[in-house]
Each structure stands twice: as C-alpha cells, then as structure tokens.
Amino acid sequence: MLDDMPPPDDMAELERALSRISHLLSRAKEHDRTIDEAGVAVDRASAPFLRALADASAPLRLGELATLLGVEAPHVTRQVQRLERADFVERVPDPDDRRAQRVRITAKGADAVECIRAVGRRWMSDALADWSDEDRHRLAALCHRMVDDFLRFGAERRESDRGRPA
To answer: Which residues belong to any copy of the HTH marR-type domain (predicted)?
Structure first.
C-alpha cells in the first residue's frame, strides 16, 4: 500500500527530471542517429550488453550479465547469440566451473563501444558547452552518487524481501 503522504517537492521534481533523461536517452531515433554517426551496426537492445561487458573487469557469466542489466536470462541468451554472430562478443570457458561459460567483449566489440561513447561524449560536450568545468564535474559526481545509492537501496530491498514469507 502506498503511503498517503505526497512526496516532497524535490523528489517529485527529481523523478520528473530522471523520467525526461530516461526518455531522451532511450528514444529509438536518438539511438539510430548515434549509431549512424559512430559507424557501427549495433541494435538498441544490444548496446547495453556491450557497454556492460566493456566495463566488466573480467568475462561474465550469463546470469551475472542478466542481474547486472536487470533482465531475464532468455533475453541475455538471445542478445549474446546476436552479438556473437556480429563478432562483438565471444564465449570463453569459466575457470571456476568447466561446465559453464563466460562472455567477454572482443576487440571489435570494444571498438564499437568506444565509437558509440565518443559520439555520446561529443553530443554532451556540445550540449553542455556553456556549463563551467565545476558544474560538469559536480553533475557527474552527483549522478554517480545517486546511482550508487539506488543500487545499494535496491540490494537492501532484495535482501529484505528474501527474509519475508511468501
């Protein structure tokens, strides 16, 4: 049951701003424009997988990738198969379990991610050209802090839910 108290005004404004950002970043036309400018053939559903694998310090199990991206295992399997066919990722043996495999990004995949990110950085640089260095640094720090807090809160909620009777 939802709390009858309305959220503080700043939370309502923050939610509205985040919704606007999410919409802006997930628009199909924006993705297509970015991909065209980057010169890589990556569909919108595959891009987050490539980014996650590029940021990973080691190859990931499919289940780890699903958890990281908050998606179901069959979706991961389909995306990994698609990315394998494009030579953006490859499966490698899991050193901890010979029956399992992990997925790692290939050099071609890492190059694709860097091209996509370069376009994004250029777009942000142009859009925020009038912002001071201090404001941009502060925004980045606050965004990282917010995401870290959201992840921590989500993990705590999942842990709390595990202790509840079904």
So the answer is: 11-148
Full pLDDT tens readout for the chain, 166 residues: 456 677 777 898 999 999 998 888 878 888 888 889 999 989 888 999 999 999 999 999 999 999 889 899 899 999 999 999 999 999 999 998 888 899 999 999 999 999 999 999 999 999 999 999 999 999 999 999 999 999 899 888 888 887 776 5
Q: Which CATH class is domain 34-129?
A: mainly alpha
CA torsion, points 126, 128, 133, 137, in degrees to nearest 10?
Answer: -120
Which of 141, 139, 119, 126 shows the shortest CA–CA distance to 39? Answer: 119
Residue 91 phi/psi, 5° resolution? -90, 140
